[in-house]
Amino acid sequence: MIEMHDVWKVYPNGIEALRGVNITIDTGEFVYVVGPSGAGKSSFIKLMYREEKPTSGVVLINGVNVKRVRDWKIPHLRRKIGVVFQDYKLLPHMSAYDNVAFALEAVEVPTKQIQPRVEEALELVGLSDRMKALPSQLSGGEQQRVSIARAIVNNPGFIIADEPTGNLDPENSWDIMYLLEEINMRGTTVVMATHNKEIVNTMRQRVIAIEQGIVVRDEIGGEYGYED
Amino acid sequence: MKIDTLRRHFREAYRGIVKNSWMSFAAVGAVAVTLMIFGVFVIFAVNLGSITDEVGDNVSMNVVLKEEVTKEQATALTTKIKGLPNVNEARFISKDEGVDEVKKNLKDADFTRVLQKGENNFLPNLIKVTPKNVSVSKQVEDAVKGLEGVEGVKNSSTAKELLDSVLLFKNIILVFGVALAVLAAFLISNTIKLTIIARRREIEVQRLVGASNWFIRWPFFIEGGFIGFVGSVLPIGVLLLVYQGFVKMISGGSKNANLLQMVGFGDMAMYLTGSILGIGIFIGVFGSVLSIRRFLKI
Fold first, then answer.
1. Tens of pLDDT along A177-199?
2. I want to staple A147 with a disulfide (CB 3.0 to 4.6 A). Which of A88, A128, B53, B148 is the partner?
3. Please, what's the b/e burial string for B107-129 (b: 16 or more CB within 10 A of its CB; e: otherwise)?
4. For the FtsX extracellular domain, which residue ranges apply (chain B) (predicted)?
5. Average of pLDDT values for B167-180?
6. Which comes out higher in pLDDT, residue A151 or B245?
7. Residue B192 to residue B223: CA distance in whole angstroms
């Protein structure tokens, strides 16, 4: 469960990215975070995987106050969260397999377990036959699927996705959405910031709209609500 | 730490070195030069102990007595000097004993024929005073000069000056070595910085998937330590070879065989290897720490 209580995020240059946000996301939910550019979506997302600390207020991940977590314990917090980005953040010199294995090595998973787990994750995202391909040999959609495989290979409770379809054509975007939906069906909480009106309006999940750092709308089965 | 993880850290460190091979090479070179100088310092410092002991024996001074001082007065004066602080030994040498001593020291060279005992002996009565150590010889000299019946004090050798210059040389090498060590650490730090920059994407992904801070840092420590280690091996080899040759030359049947008793090769090999390896790895790791602190934002 993710909880935010009166969360403010003010950057050193004085910009108030979030202003008194109160939100609760239950385990197993699928949530879209929408809003115009610069509304505070990214700050909202970054607080969840402790890339940013709240200036004031409380952010709880499974009951743990992220602001109070000691620096050396942050990695353990992040292991519970898989993060997916618009630009995939794959390592260009590594194959699809190695990119996913890299995530397991980083958390010191025993070598014997790495191969079966990587293969399972790549199979889930439909890339069993592309394991040896380098990112440059994969399409945008395939690269995003590798990045999703990397995010889920540690079996996190949450997937935080920041514009995961932002660089993809409609067909690939839908593939990614079906994949995220399937992951959500297996019990993983998915929080996704997006500008994709069609997807939000079609898939009808919970929608949190942020404008000028304030949550202006929070509805189950909501719509995108903007004309961009 | 698991053995798999350790193996991985070494592999990553090796990858970093190969990737920035020229920078790593420069850093290894800087460490090698630094440690070569440091090694010379170690050789001096270790040998200085034995040199100081030897020189220490030669810092005795001759206290020249006035012509009118009688033998009884001289004996009393000797006892008085013996009682002074910082004096190890004081021995009265009469004019005639002086002749014997000079002839013995100079191996009856031709010109010593002019030295005669008795009426025509122009040597003074003197008291040979040995201070407790070199550093207090000036105090002893000043104390003795003020005593009644003393004409003057002459140092029997220039040992003190020799020792002073050796110490000065040692200090110059030390300062130079420290400056170079700082330079080498910065070069290593720069190499590590390049590796950190080259790996920023990997580091970013590692952070995101929850790698521990130490997991991310270890390869950079190993890389720095390894550069320091490789940079140590060359100077150790060169210095030991040179030292071995030097020891042989000094003790190789020359008349000066006993002039300087150098520390044995085995002992020196131990001192040199231990200290250079230790300092080398320290410089390497220190360089890594500098870069990790500045550039590795975890």
1. 999 999 999 999 999 999 999 99
2. A88
3. eeeeeeeebeeeeeeebbbbbbb
4. 59-153
5. 79
6. A151
7. 8
- Note whether B6 contacts A: Cβ–Cβ < 8 A: no
Is residue B255 over pLDDT 50?
Answer: no
A vs B: CB pairs below 8 A: 55
Q: Is the Cβ–Cβ distance between B288 and B225 less than 8 Å?
A: yes
Residue B123 scores a pLDDT above 60? yes
Contact call for B212 and A110, based on CB within 8 A: no
Extract the tokens encoding A78: 């992040």
Record: contact A106-B209, CB cut-off 8 A? yes
A92: Cα within 13 Å, side-chain hemisphere: 6
Asked whether residue A101 is domain-assigned, the answer is yes
B79's tokens: 């006892």
Using a CB–CB cutoff of 8 Å, tell me whether B297 touches chain A: no
Contact A75 B212 (CB under 8 A): yes
**Mutant choice from B209, B218, B298 vs A, greatest count of A C-beta within 10 A:** B209
- For residue B14, the distance in angstroms to the closest alpha carbon of chain A comes to 16
* Domain ranges, residue A163: 29-50+75-219
As for how many domains chain A has, the answer is 1
Query: Residue A153: closest CA among chain B residues belongs to which residue?
Result: B209
Beta-carbon separation of A91 and B201 below 8 A:
yes
For residue A182, the domain's CATH number is 3.40.50.300
Let me know if residue A97 belongs to a domain. Answer: yes
CATH architecture of B59-156: 2-Layer Sandwich (3.30)
Banded pLDDT at B52 (limits 50, 70, 90)? low
